[in-house]
């Protein structure tokens, strides 16, 4: 029986081609997702080993919550602790105690500043696709072990930089070249002193080496605790500058822990332990990528399963007489079943094998494209044995599931009927249709319930039990359950809709093409299940794409509505440098003539309300915010009066989360680190006293040596005096600066609650309160809105504003239309990749239509021969099959559009409070889908029609 199955597979190999493609695409996504995840994991591991390469790290010993954590600005080079356990910050003064521990070669805080911009010699900003630009501090005294200079050396002055090799390549800069670096306070002229390489690629990041003092200065500007840090890195000396072994790291960490002051709240851990923690947290943060790719794998395999089922239906139908003969000579149903399963296993193996190779190639292509676009990756990407086994199993399982029903039909068809090709007629579709209709009703009801929960202002019903149930489920679960019920329900209901759909959709073709149109419409109902399964393949892809289309269109319409109806300002200003507008740029804008008002939103770091931080932003704004920039949509109170009167204006989401109402008293606290003038003066005086005492001691020694005529000794002592004097002159004054934490505590009143989408998660106060609660270190401008004076030429004013900020490179001045267009293009960019990937499901659906028509043609060989014998032209045969395919495509497309648009409407309602205020249905896109579906059908009919017409008329007539 195995040999029979293999022989049948060989004879039907052409039939398998499209199913193999469907399996290969699905398996490719599965294998590709695993390869991509492993590549990202390897990339993270390599970067952590390079960028966090200290032998020991000293960090806080107490775990803290988000509310207690500090907004520290220092970090290891390229390192992000996103997702990792947070610990208390520690004093940077601990570096002195750590440096004295036996076995410590260097102990320092590595400061990194993100959001800077490198400008090359031609005046162009250097940037890559999505990767950051950062300045990190290191020097010969405080080196970066994993960095090796290929030319030049470390920067030693504030106006000097070193460049990572990738940054040098992108900028075209070399040692000795002049360039600019744009910091938060504006551009600085610099000279390139060195080019260095690192052990691992930086994934497209532009890394700039600066002196530690420069890095610390700019890090402190965004750090409310400049005398604290998250960690101190330690290099050990045991291996002569090479990384310590695990045992040596542990020994050094133990010695450091013994030397740390008891009240330091600090603890030393090995570098390996720190890297393992940081690597895992970063890998977990990137874990969403694999499920995203697997979603497309599920879609491709789900759609492909219909093609596989139709393919085996075709093969079983053509081989039915052979199976009947096997049954008549004693083969059991299970043996006949096994012949089909053998073919399915072979099909699954071939398709899975191709899919594994395709998945590997897909990741290779992604890596090549990312490298070309400026994000080189070095992680391993070859599929592991586990990846290949997973892809193989998935391909086999999907194939076996798709082949099982046709195989069962072949095994249990009565031999006599099978020999006469009077196979059991198709089962009634009414019971299945009823069950599908019930599921559709339940799905629709679930979505209506979801929309009611989302749109309700308070409890969705007057029944407590239902309200508690709604609070327990939220909107996520009902939304997903409703989608599942509707998709399954439509697929089950599909066969019952084929007949009515053929009549309705075939009405126009039947009147335009009376013969071929009527024949095509009637042919669809011959195998309702097969037709519905083919349409279902297209239905799934269209449903997802149309759902995304509604969401995207609504998002763009919502943004446009905010700009058109809510934004009063003529211009919006923002910065590509960490969102922070340099002070110089802000002043340059204010100095431009022709502006009626300038509103700057200043973000306040670390503000707490009744002891807790809000889940949103806190910022200070000018009194003109609600009169000249945004019209407030007040739920309670008067926003403009509240802002001017020194009260809080609270976004609706925050007010609901905290249970605040207008008139409530809220205690607002901030902790700001400021310069301790007395302690700083004392530190300077103590240093001067120590220098004077040292010089006095040396001078006394010099006098004795001179008196004793010790010429050599006197010369040596004189040199020491000169050295001490020079060191005192060159000492960095910042090293004497002492800070203290000042807590500001104010009781403020909630003056208004507003529902504007842009401010729903914001707490707004006026500038006066902002200055009392914050400092320069804890406040920075994130957005500016400008209003032109009446009668000003807006276009001319915009050009003057652009000229004013041109030297800052990162600052953009946009008018209302440009601002709206930029927001809309961001939505399009996010959805572009999703559209491209989901288009694969439509391509697979085309294969399904081809298969279905090919099966239909094989079943109607004699009928088509008779039609041609009585004078039907070749064009009419092609037209009949083309109309059939077009009706199937339009049928699947209409089902997909109905469900997809409904899903988009519900999703829009669920997320209305998060920005999707306006419902917009892209009717042009829907029309394009319908036209595309007709073209898809016509294209899919070409091959089956050609096959039908190749059969000689007499052979076709006598085929049965």
From TrEMBL:
Cellular location(s): Cell membrane
One of the record's GO cellular component terms: plasma membrane
Composition skew (Low complexity), residue ranges: 71-83
TM spans (from-to): 16-36, 292-316, 365-382, 388-408, 429-449, 485-510, 531-552, 830-858, 879-906, 926-945
Domain MacB-like periplasmic core: 17-207
Domain ABC3 transporter permease C-terminal per the UniProt entry, residue ranges: 295-415, 836-952
Annotated protein name in UniProt: FtsX-like permease family protein
The species this protein was found in: Bifidobacterium vespertilionis
Species lineage: Bacteria, Bacillati, Actinomycetota, Actinomycetes, Bifidobacteriales
